[in-house]
Every structure is written in structure tokens, then in C-alpha cells.
Design goal:
This protein is of the alpha/beta class. It has helices spanning about 5-20, 25-40, 40-60, 90-105, 150, 165-180, 195-205, 220-235, and strands spanning about 1-5, 70-80, 80-85, 130-135, 140-145, 155-160, 185-195, 245-255, 260-270, 275-280.
């Protein structure tokens, strides 16, 4: 049994929140640069130049890439041989989010109740936390700030097995075309296929954590990722104001499902596909 202090978790999460807000992952930055080289629209190239410059300034000056520093999604893999001492795991994570958003001068965007009062919690908590128990004595935490310009354009379709690959492609493209330029493209598109309605949605969020230059290990899903990316980049949505670089990557995660089901969830992320990881 290995012991990890709750305070250490809080400190690490606080730092991760700031890192994710300030520093665009290297694979995403490289994808933006590749998009700039291949972009056919002069306006699209200008927009990509500004996006790349903005990311550089954010990194150099420790400033948020975007004013919407998101609702904090946290994926946790908790080793079954780990004991958290000095507090509750979720409380430690939320304390870290509050600390990071306050110290980092990140916008607090969470309301405590969604429909009537909508009062801001003033510290960006609570985070949305997904915890999985795994073998071993490590604690892996991934922080994924999710802005809502793109989140509001995400979607889910409950298909049936007869819809097949063609139906999956149509479902994804319907959501993308409805989103159009609103999610601040070029997008990174996370897709969850299988499971239940809620499981597919979680898989689509987790898909955004995979590097944009890494394809699914299953060859047929890898092929589908490439085909969907090509279809999205043929829409003309482009970087904000039209062009050929509508998406930087399509990442698919899949899981077992019911014999009668084929859930498809699509989480759209803007060009600021932000995340940070720690293994304690």
C-alpha cells in the first residue's frame, strides 16, 4: 500500500490547471503549423497565423490561450494499492482547481445551479471528475479544461446497428455542419462509439486527450478517423472564416455496446485543445 497526501494532489492539480490554460500541447501546436502550410485560403492562413502567434504569446507570458478557461474535466486513474491520506480525493481535486484558477487569474465560469439562480461559484468548482480504479500504486490525473463555445455545439446520436459506418459518418457530419464556424475552428473532434448514451459521451471527451498525431490502434477505426477528417476538411468551414483547415484531428474511442445499439457521441473542441497530465 502506497500513501499519497491529499495536499500533494491539490498542489499538482492547481499547477496543472494553470499549465493547461497557458501552454498549448506540442502536438496541437504542430498540427496548427501543418495546417498553416497546407491551408489554401489566404484569409484562412491569416487566421492561422494569428492563432499560432496567440499560442506563442500565451506560452511566453504565462497567460491564458483563451479567455474561456473552461469547465474543468478531470480523468483519474487510481491504483488500487494507493491510499489517500489527509482528505478526500474529490475534495483534494476541487481544492486544486479553486487554487489554480484563483492564483492563475483564470476566468471562473461555473454556476452552482444550471437553470434558475445560475449563481457563479467564484472558483470554477466543482470539477467534472471521472475516476477509474486500476491495478498498481500510481495515481494518474489528467486535467482537461473545456470551453463552452465548442461544448455547446457537441452532440449525440442514438443509432441502431443497421445504420453502420455510413450512419456513423452521417451522424458526425450532421453535428459538424450544424456547428459550422461557431466552435472556433480548426477543431479537434473527439468521438465515442458504443457503450450507453452516457458512456459514449465520456469516451468522446477522453478521445480529446490523445495526441492529434496518434491514430486509433484498431486499423478500421484509424481508417474511419482519417476518412472523417477528410470529410470535415472538405466542408469549407476552415479556420474561423472559411478555408480548408476545418479540423486538426479526429480521435475515436470505442467500447462494447448492446446488441440493439450504436451510440455515437461527438465532442467538439476548439483549436485550443488543452490538457495536462501528472502521474503521482
Amino acid at each position: 500500500m502506497r500513501t499519497i497526501q491529499a495536499e500533494q494532489i491539490t498542489q499538482e492539480v492547481a499547477q496543472m490547471c494553470k499549465e493547461a490554460a497557458y501552454y498549448l500541447p506540442g502536438d496541437v501546436f504542430a498540427a496548427l503549423e501543418r495546417g498553416r502550410l497546407s491551408e489554401k485560403s489566404p484569409v484562412g492562413r491569416e487566421v492561422l497565423d494569428q492563432i499560432i502567434t496567440n499560442a506563442k504569446i500565451a506560452k511566453e507570458e504565462d497567460r491564458p490561450i483563451c479567455q474561456d478557461t473552461g469547465m474543468t474535466i478531470v480523468f483519474v486513474e487510481l491504483g488500487q494499492d494507493v491510499h489517500i491520506e489527509g482528505g478526500n480525493l474529490n475534495d483534494a481535486i476541487n481544492a486544486g482547481v479553486a487554487k489554480g484558477y484563483t492564483e492563475g487569474y483564470l476566468r471562473k465560469s461555473v454556476v452552482a445551479e444550471p437553470l434558475f439562480d445560475r449563481k457563479n461559484t467564484q472558483d470554477n468548482t466543482p470539477a467534472v471528475i471521472y475516476t477509474e480504479i486500476v491495478p498498481g500504486d500510481k495515481l494518474t490525473i489528467q486535467v482537461e479544461p473545456k470551453g463552452f463555445g465548442s461544448e455547446n455545439k457537441s452532440g449525440l446520436k442514438m443509432l441502431v446497428p443497421a445504420d453502420g459506418v455510413k450512419g456513423v459518418k452521417k451522424a458526425v457530419m450532421d453535428i459538424i455542419l450544424h456547428a459550422s464556424c461557431n466552435p472556433c475552428p480548426p477543431m479537434v473532434v473527439g468521438i465515442g462509439i458504443g457503450g450507453t448514451m452516457d458512456r459514449a459521451a465520456v469516451m468522446s471527451k477522453k478521445a480529446l486527450l490523445r495526441p492529434t498525431n496518434v491514430r486509433n490502434a484498431h486499423p478500421e477505426y484509424a481508417k474511419l478517423e482519417e476518412e472523417l477528417l477528410e470529410l470535415i476538411n472538405q466542408t469549407g468551414i476552415g479556420p474561423q472564416l472559411g478555408g480548408t483547415t476545418s479540423a486538426l484531428a479526429v480521435n475515436i474511442e470505442w467500447g462494447p455496446t448492446h446488441i440493439a445499439g450504436l451510440p455515437v457521441a461527438v465532442t467538439i473542441c476548439c483549436h485550443a485543445c488543452r490538457h495536462s497530465k501528472r502521474v503521482l
